[in-house]
Design goal:
single chain; alpha/beta; about 25% helix; about 25% strand; globular
Length: about 200
């Protein structure tokens, strides 16, 4: 587009917009991932952790964390001229899960982030998407100074189906996070295509 007009001979492209959820346990890097890839200033609904929340918020393993998402994170990334992703980061604590159904409506797929120090924190998110047949990719966030485990070991520990992609990533790094987003789009589209195929009789 030049000075508000499309180039001669090129019709304007109307991009396809897709909704992707970023889920996982408390302090796993959801807000960080959305912020790392978003081309707009991400919308964040973070609040400071308080003494009143200590009995409910398990901060073991993330003792330095002092804020939490209470509604959602929102960001946007253009993967191609004709493909835009809207990213919705979900709140990690159980008490905010009533928001998940609203956020999941109309989503193409999801990323479930995991921290190998606290794998059990992502089980509920995995169950949520499996029960609703929402395609998801498992993203193992490789935190600095934390031992890395072979992908197959992590898959076994999570008891993931073979058809669920599992990728290692760094939620702080734009290119790494972008690769996870590409993976979830490809997986979701392949899943949708497979569901449309007629069953052979």
């Amino acid at each position: 587009m030049i000075f508000g007009r499309t180039e001669r001979g090129k019709p304007p492209v109307e991009p396809v917009t897709l909704k992707i959820l970023v889920a996982g346990g408390f302090g796993v890097g959801k807000t960080t991932l959305v912020g790392a890839v978003s081309e707009i200033k991400p919308l964040r609904t973070e609040e400071v952790l308080t003494e009143a929340g200590r009995p409910v918020d398990d901060t073991s393993g993330v003792e330095g964390k002092n804020t939490t998402t209470v509604a959602m994170d929102f960001g946007r990334i253009t993967l191609r001229e004709d493909l835009v992703l809207y990213l919705f980061g979900t709140p990690g604590q159980d008490r905010f899960w009533f928001l998940w159904d609203e956020l999941a409506t109309g989503s193409l797929g999801a990323i479930v982030l995991a921290d190998t120090r606290r794998l059990e924190d992502c089980f509920a998110a995995v169950d949520y998407f499996e029960r609703r047949s929402i395609p998801f990719v498992m993203g193992v966030n490789c935190f600095e100074g934390v031992a890395r485990h072979p992908v197959e070991e992590v898959r076994q520990a999570l008891d993931l189906d073979e058809d669920v992609p599992l990728v290692l990533c760094d939620a702080r790094d734009r290119e790494s996070a972008k690769e996870v987003l590409i993976e979830v789009v490809q997986h979701a589209l392949a899943t949708a295509a497979a569901r449309r195929e007629p069953v052979a009789t």
